[in-house]
Amino acid sequence: MSDIDVHHLAAAYALDALDDHERAAFEAHYRSCEVCHTDVSDFRATLTQVSSAMAVPPPESLKDRVLAEVAVTRQLSPAVVPAVMHIDLAARRRARTVSITLAAAAAVVAVVIGVLAFSGRSQSTYANDLARVLEQPDARMVDLQNKSGTAGSFKVAWSKGLGEAVLIGENLPPAPSDKAYELWLVTPQQSMAMSVLDPATGGNVHRTVKASADPSAWAITVEPKAGSPVATGSIIYVANV
Amino acid sequence: MGVLRAMRARPHDVDGDELDAAGNLLRRAGRGDQVSFAELYDQLAPMVHGVVLKVVRDPAQAEEVTQEVFVELWRLAARFDGTKGSARTWAATVAHRRAIDRVRSEQASRDRLQRDAAHVVREHDTVVAEVESSLEQARVRKALGQLSDLQREAVELAYFGGHTYREVAVLLDVAEGTVKSRIRDGMIRLRDELGGES
Ligand SMILES: [Zn+2]
Prior knowledge:
The complex is a heterodimer. In chain A, the strands form 2 sheets. A 5-stranded antiparallel beta sheet of chain A has the order 2-9-8-5-6. In chain A, strands 1-3-4-7 form a 4-stranded antiparallel beta sheet, with helices on one face. Chain A is built from 7 helices and 9 strands, in the order H-H-H-H-H-H-H-E-E-E-E-E-E-E-E-E. Chain A has helices at about 10-15, 20-30, 35-55, 60-70, 90-95, 115-120, 125-135, and strands at about 140-145, 145, 155-160, 165-170, 180-185, 190-195, 205-210, 215-225, 235-240. In chain A, helix 2 runs antiparallel to helix 7. Chain A folds into 2 domains: about 5-125, no CATH class; about 135-240, Immunoglobulin-like. The two termini of chain A are about 25 Å apart. By secondary structure, chain A is of the alpha+beta class. Chain B folds into 2 domains: about 1-115, RNA polymerase sigma factor, region 2, helix turn helix motif (Rna Polymerase Sigma Factor, Chain: A); about 145-195, Winged helix-like DNA-binding domain superfamily/Winged helix DNA-binding domain (Arc Repressor Mutant, subunit A). In chain B, helix 4 packs across helix 5 and helix 8 crosses helix 9. The radius of gyration of chain B is 17 Å and the shape is globular. At the A-B interface, helix 1, helix 3 and helix 4 of A face helix 1, helix 3, helix 4, helix 5 and helix 7 of B. The complex binds zinc ion (ZN). Zinc ion binds near residues 6, 7, 33 and 36 of chain A.
């Protein structure tokens, strides 16, 4: 699927006609793509009209069964959007208590890989990268746990077989002045610097990096703007694998 | 929740009254109002059951899935955001997805592929025949009629057959890329005919 144009999957997505991998790839893409977002909304509304034209009343008895189940079914709370906050010192102190030590074992010199080769790619290249990774049989995707108390989220999708990882950061606050975010692939032996992320104005970042090691965790720290070969800052996002 | 976020802000609703009514009922249901939810059920159940039945086909299973859909709508009612799409579209999206989940186990998918391969042509006739009588149904039938045969077959096999576009490519014996563009072209045409609003 490497040459796929992800923008063109909106119709198939609205029809629920994508397989699971493509669906995950498209969902990761379209939330931040205005064009696809509009297409999906429009297509869904169109399909609602088609569905309305197919209306078939269910048997009368179903209503009572539905209402009986509803009466004993707990409702979820409204989704609350967290307020945007800056990374504060207290949060950093809390983050230091995270059990993974990035400045890890053996002080192996970390390897900075792929940053230059992969920087500056376009949105659709990112989506294609993500689709390619997710299509691998050994593909995995994790949400990083936010340790900082700030807004924003990170996901990492990777395939060891393919040797690539795609980082998806959304709704991020800007990094503190003179600082940047840095992604780490953590193994029991070492922490490898994957990429320096500098969302000066916050928002969304996507990055594809070479990653052929088996991660035991993914983590993001705050580092000097130029990046750091070993992690020095506190962990603000982390996922154990 | 994916479905919720998938709905985008709409500046206006064409059929504002009816939609606002459903949206308001859903918002009240989100605060635990079971009476409003019962009213919402009356408004949406024929559509939800219709699309589920179309996909699942077995009446007993369609009833089960319809029940699941409404319990899901109840659970998530507080997360409904009317600025991101109408309540009716939200219900249709949840209903279709649930129906697809029901039929898309590997075995079921193999069976459907075999069955549908034998009935591609008749299936299309059936769908068009069922779209009748009311003004809206006539509009939808006319819009479906504007599609080329292959666009319509591809869209219907995907939406009502519950097939992925790759499976549709096998059924129609055309390249995957061709099916993708037919589905896209067909949906754009339908949208232009019907408008995006529900
Ligand atoms: Zn797009």
